[in-house]
Design goal:
The structure holds 2 protein chains of 2 kinds. By secondary structure, chain A is an alpha/beta fold. Chain A starts with 5 loop residues before the first helix and ends with a helix. In chain A, strand 1, helix 3 and strand 2 form a beta-alpha-beta unit. Chain A is globular and about 55 Å long. Chain A has 12 helices and 7 strands. Chain A has one domain: Rossmann fold (3-Layer(aba) Sandwich). In chain B, strand 11, helix 10 and strand 12 form a beta-alpha-beta unit. Chain B is α/β, with parallel strands linked by helices. In chain B, strands 3-2-4-5-7-6-13 form a 7-stranded mixed beta sheet, sandwiched between helices. Chain B has a 5-stranded mixed beta sheet with strand order 10-12-11-14-15, sandwiched between helices. Chain B has 2 domains: 231 residues, Thiamin diphosphate (ThDP)-binding fold, Pyr/PP domains (Rossmann fold, 3-Layer(aba) Sandwich), CATH 3.40.50; 115 residues, Rossmann fold, CATH 3.40.50.920. The interface between A and B is large, with 37 and 39 residues.
């Protein structure tokens, strides 16, 4: 019988990041929350931050994020993660504080908290998962839903006369002097996932250096509530979301460029 | 420490500083704003955390975050702002975290006015947010008591891992009178083992108020109820005056209780057998002692700066055994001692003449 050891013939190419807990998640098949979690966990591992990081989970599909990451964490009230993170960070400025929020949480009910955290230049990092819908409650219209998008609360398609237009958070927050690093990336293919990872690394470095507020917006899929197959959903990001939410660097202050 | 002239709001703020509060988050609202202003100076001088939040909603959620790290933390507000804090308070209660909240009550409902009121009794004692819990509520009637109860608030919050509310009103917040501050306590450097300080060399800690399974949520609720039971047993506080031989017992807290004392003393001068029972804890309501007094007094007269909210607890404590009358002023009107004396006189007369057929006065501003 042939036996090989890992060191002799194989190279370890994939393993669970130490910063991710060894547990199942409640995410639907094909949802990109899993990708976003992994990228954040890898970045925390690579920077050696796990032991001094506190994660603030939102209300929404990622409500259990505090259990899915292998680090100290808490669960905020809907939309209030930036305020809760502020409380944690102000008394423990040497710790890393990260909020992980969806678009309903961050861009609707939590608009005031995220805007003011950014305006204060609060030295926290926000991972903003934008999938243009309320996932956990079963697919209602979000502030980021696209014009014409059918949801369970806009069954005839989002009517801009009645309900206005999608809120572009990266653009909005980039106007604030307190924001140091605001970028939008997408999780619809490998190349973009790699760029997203790099952006998360940069955002965490911004916080490590005490440079102020950082946010990475990640365009993400919700196959279940969009009524699409997982692969179709990735195409929907590319074909429908990116035109409405252009990818790019919206705010990168000079000091961050030199990181 | 010697007595000095102190404004209530500033005295509460300085008492919190001396109790070792490490972080304060707040939002300006009259009649408590001097408290926030004092903190903006003192906390910065002492290199502690002061932050003016964008709203009361944000302020209480900042308190929630700071409380997760195991430090002594507080906020302060007044009635409409306190209403906005109920969301965060419920989450804090659902996470077993300690914090201190000062409510300098003003007239309502709605924007109401900026004058003293006790109209928040229901919202602060019943649960202060959704779910089955009560915060501990302390009610000062003077600047000195505001100082003493603020100091106590931090100790009780830590002891029970519970929310403690200091329920003052605009009169106490704005009034200046001689009072003595306690010496400065040092800020604690140790952190409790549940605190979110980074999972360095230990398993991760998580703090949440989230239990998807009904049985787990019920078990957590049972834990809260067990703690509330313990608090109800151990922490009922009150002050009583002239209760040895009183026939009519006036019940009032905070400013209303203090003004009622003047009326009770005037009634005593006129030979009426009147006493005063002044709860210091609104939750737990001092029901045990009031229940004992029910056996020896003929009637109660509840005096409040509201339409009558605490009266429900007085009725529960007295169990329908004696008549419970009421005198109250609303909307920021402060009752004068002679008005209360008149209500006392009317009640005493009824007690004397009706002998068992007593009809309690059940009206506001009679």
């Amino acid at each position: 019988m042939m036996t090989t050891t890992l060191n002799e013939t194989n190279t370890l190419v994939y393993e669970r990041p130490h910063s991710l807990a060894a547990c199942n998640t409640n995410y639907c098949p094909g949802c990109t929350h899993g990708v976003a979690h992994r990228l954040l966990a890898e970045a925390i591992d690579e920077l050696g931050l796990r032991e001094r990081t506190i994660l603030v989970a939102p209300v929404g599909c990622s409500v259990f994020a505090y259990k899915y990451f292998n680090m100290d964490g808490c669960e905020a009230a809907h939309g209030r993660a930036p305020a809760m993170a502020t409380g944690i960070k102000r008394v423990q400025p040497d710790k890393m504080v990260i909020t992980y929020q969806g678009d309903g949480d961050l861009a609707s009910i939590g608009m005031a908290e995220i805007v003011h955290a950014a305006a204060r230049g609060e030295n926290i990092t926000t991972v903003f998962v934008n999938n243009a819908i309320y996932g956990m409650t079963g697919g209602q219209m979000a502030p980021t839903s696209l014009p014409g998008q059918k949801t369970t609360s806009s069954p005839f398609g989002r009517d801009t006369i009645l309900t206005g237009y999608p809120v572009r958070m990266s653009e909005l927050l980039s106007t604030l002097d307190g924001a140091s690093y605001i970028v939008r990336r997408s999780l619809h293919d490998i190349a973009n996932i790699r760029k997203a990872k790099k952006a998360i690394l940069t955002a965490l470095k911004v916080q490590m250096k005490g440079m102020g507020f950082s946010m990475v917006e990640l365009l993400s899929s919700c196959p279940t509530n969009w009524g699409l197959e997982p692969v179709e959903a990735l195409h929907w990001i590319e074909n429908n979301m990116i035109p409405a939410f252009p990818l790019g660097d919206y705010k990168v202050i000079e000091e961050v460029r030199s990181l | 420490m010697a007595k000095e002239m102190l404004k209530g709001n500033i005295a509460i703020a300085e008492a919190a500083v001396r109790a070792g509060v490490e972080a304060y988050f707040g939002y300006p609202i009259t009649p408590q704003t001097e408290l926030l202003e004092h903190m903006s100076k003192r906390m910065v001088e002492l290199k502690r955390v002061f932050l003016q939040a964008e709203s009361e909603v944000a302020a209480i959620n900042m308190v929630y975050g700071a409380a997760c790290t195991g430090v002594r933390v507080m906020t302060s507000s007044s009635s409409p702002g306190f209403s906005l804090m109920q969301e965060g308070l419920s989450y804090i209660a659902g996470s077993d975290l300690p914090c201190v909240v000062v409510d300098v009550m003003r007239g309502g409902p709605g924007l109401g006015n900026i004058l003293p009121s006790q109209g928040d009794y229901f919202q602060i004692t019943r649960s202060a947010g959704h779910g089955d819990y009560h915060p501990i509520v302390l009610a000062p009637s003077s600047v000195q008591e505001a100082i003493d109860l603020t100091t106590l608030a931090f100790d009780l919050a830590d002891q029970y891992r519970h929310i403690v509310i200091v329920a003052a009103d605009g009169l106490i917040g704005q009034m200046m009178e001689p009072a003595e501050l306690p010496p400065m306590q040092s800020v604690r450097t140790d952190r409790p083992d549940w605190a979110l300080t980074g999972a360095d060399g230990r398993q991760p800690n998580s703090i949440a108020s989230f239990y998807l399974k009904a049985e787990e949520e019920e078990a957590f609720n049972q834990k809260i109820q067990d703690r509330l039971h313990e608090i109800r047993d151990a922490e009922q506080r009150f002050i009583e005056y002239y209760t040895d031989d009183c026939e009519l017992l006036v019940v009032g807290y905070g400013s209303a209780g203090r003004i009622a004392l003047s009326a009770v003393q005037a009634a005593r001068d006129k030979g009426m057998k009147v006493g005063l029972f002044r709860p210091l804890t609104l939750w737990p309501f001092p029901e045990k002692r009031l229940s004992e007094l029910t056996d020896v007094v003929g009637a109660c007269l509840v005096v409040e700066m509201s339409a009558g909210q605490m009266i429900e607890d007085v009725r529960l404590a007295t169990g329908g055994q004696i008549p419970v009358g009421f005198y109250g002023r609303m909307g920021g009107v402060i009752p004068m001692p002679d008005e209360i004396l008149q209500a006392i006189t009317t009640h005493c007369r009824q007690l004397k003449h009706c002998e068992g057929a007593f009809t309690p006065l059940e009206r506001v501003n009679s």
